[in-house]
Design brief:
With about 70 residues, the protein is an all-alpha fold. The protein has 3 helices and no strands. The protein has helices at about 5-20, 30-40, 40-65. The two termini are about 30 Å apart.
Length: about 70
């Protein structure tokens, strides 16, 4: 999945609107994670590596019937 800079900026705007409505101390970890994903290229790289490792693990389990 290719995410463009425009997509990241749109998501950051959505997060800003959410935080304006509910404040920054809202306790929503998915909002914190998405904000970090949109602002930190290294974090995006690590997420992609984790996702690929998860996919490969699932393929292994399906292949050998675990």
């Amino acid at each position: 999945m290719n995410i463009t800079q425009k997509d990241l900026e749109a998501k950051l705007k959505q997060i800003a609107e959410f935080e304006e409505k509910y404040g920054t101390d809202h306790g929503q970890t998915n909002v914190y994670a998405m904000k970090k994903y949109c602002t930190d290229a290294k974090y995006r790289e690590r997420v992609q590596q984790f996702n690929n490792a998860s996919i490969n693990t699932i393929k292994h389990y399906e292949r050998y019937g675990y």
